[in-house]
């Protein structure tokens, strides 16, 4: 159902744009509400906090709500949050508005991933989920630069209003194109929380926090590294970040088919290659073109591991995958904070501008170790189930993921 997947991708596009556009408008926001730029930077943390808290809480509250209705409610909250951000008169109200906007982020991605996996033919669940995630990667190429440019020309409030319009378009697309998916008889918050206690789910979330932390250890300091070491001008940075987004898009496109064929090997390969690319970047960063090529690979590999982690969590949560899928995005935001913190410690210790890349490589290796440990502990003697219909159907996953078709 390409139109339904497109509707989900539009939601992801709006989420990615509102999450990252704030970073490019910090000086304008700081002037607008009368605070320093570092204080304005706390608005990014407010959004991330909303994601971490909102993913499990809103998913739990909506555990018995049919998926389409829940998607509409969460997208409506996203629209309200962006309108509130645009109209916020003070720093305090803007902080609260950004926190509110972040609340539905993880839940929307989690519910959307489950819905996407139930829209497609057997053996294509990961591809469907990756198509939704394309909206997030395209946001880094188009949405974030456009939102930043709009905010710089017409004021930062106009950027949030434009994102609210994207949310309204997503609401219309969801209402028109996503089919109704009733919850099963065992749905409910207790059922979802019980699935979160599965050891494989816990390990999968740890892989996301640690392994993806390697990506953010570099991404968080990419601009100062490129200007201070590579010697790029400030005017070139927007194009470099767009190139990063192109890499993320390519990685997402490649990850879907490979995850459908071999879930765990795809995850292992992604983490190993990410570690190698980060080490390579510590050498290539001194020359412009090698640095740009490596940046593209890092962007691709960072997004490459997102799909197999998402599908692994959905597989191991079995017939209650929604909260696990949503919590994955809480884990990614913790990875964002943790990776940036550890990269900053390396810089503060005087290890040089290339040290965040080596810290990131170590985190990717640690994430690979956790992923391999999870694979070795997966000795229950039977293939895991990913529910892909509102009936009792399941997709199998051991060394690969396949999806069984079942009538609703």
From TrEMBL:
Transmembrane spans: 44-63, 70-91, 103-121, 133-152, 158-178, 199-223, 235-255, 267-285, 291-313, 334-351, 357-377
Keywords: Cell membrane, Membrane, Transmembrane, Transmembrane helix
Chief location category: membrane
PROSITE patterns, sorted: MFS (PS50850)
Entry annotated with the keyword Membrane: yes
Major facilitator superfamily (MFS) profile domain segment(s): 2-379
Domain of life the protein comes from: Bacteria
Region (Disordered): 388-408
Intracellular or extracellular location(s): Cell membrane
This protein's name: MFS transporter
């Amino acid at each position: 159902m390409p139109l339904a997947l497109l509707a989900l991708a539009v939601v992801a596009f709006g989420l990615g744009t509102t999450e990252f556009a704030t970073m490019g408008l910090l000086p304008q926001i700081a002037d607008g509400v009368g605070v320093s730029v570092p204080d304005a930077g706390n608005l990014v943390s407010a959004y991330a906090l909303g994601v971490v808290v909102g993913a499990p809480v809103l998913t739990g509250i909506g555990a018995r709500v049919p998926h389409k209705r829940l998607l509409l409610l969460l997208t409506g909250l996203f629209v309200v949050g962006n309108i509130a951000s645009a109209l916020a008169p003070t720093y305090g109200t803007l902080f609260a508005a950004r926190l509110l906007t972040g609340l539905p982020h993880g839940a929307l991605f989690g519910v959307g991933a489950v819905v996407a996996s139930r829209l497609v033919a057997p053996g294509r669940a990961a591809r469907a989920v990756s198509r939704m995630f394309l909206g997030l990667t395209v946001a880094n190429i188009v949405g974030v630069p456009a939102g930043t440019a709009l905010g710089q020309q017409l004021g930062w409030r106009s950027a949030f209003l434009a994102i609210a319009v994207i949310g309204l378009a997503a609401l219309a697309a969801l209402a028109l194109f996503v089919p109704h998916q009733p919850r099963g008889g065992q749905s409910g918050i207790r059922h979802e929380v019980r699935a979160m206690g599965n050891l494989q789910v816990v390990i999968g979330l740890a892989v996301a926090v640690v392994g993806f932390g390697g990506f953010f250890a570099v991404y968080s300091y990419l601009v100062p590294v490129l200007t201070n070491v590579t010697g790029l001008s400030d005017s070139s940075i927007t194009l470099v970040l767009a190139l990063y987004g192109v890499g993320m898009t390519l990685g997402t496109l490649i990850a879907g088919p490979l995850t459908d064929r071999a879930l765990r090997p795809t995850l292992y390969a992604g983490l190993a290659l990410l570690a190698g690319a980060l080490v390579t970047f510590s050498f290539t960063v001194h020359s412009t073109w090698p640095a740009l090529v490596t940046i593209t690979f890092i962007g691709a590999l960072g997004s490459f591991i997102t799909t197999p982690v998402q599908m692994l969590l959905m597989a191991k949560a079995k017939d209650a995958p929604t909260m696990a899928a949503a919590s994955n995005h809480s884990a990614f935001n913790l990875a964002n904070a943790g990776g940036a913190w550890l990269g900053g410690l390396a810089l503060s210790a005087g290890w040089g501008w290339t040290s965040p890349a080596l810290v990131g490589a170590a985190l990717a290796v640690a994430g690979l170790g956790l992923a391999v440990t999870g694979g070795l502990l997966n000795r229950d003697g039977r293939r895991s189930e990913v529910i892909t219909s509102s009936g009792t159907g399941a997709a199998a996953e051991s060394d690969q993921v396949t999806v069984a078709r079942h009538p609703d």
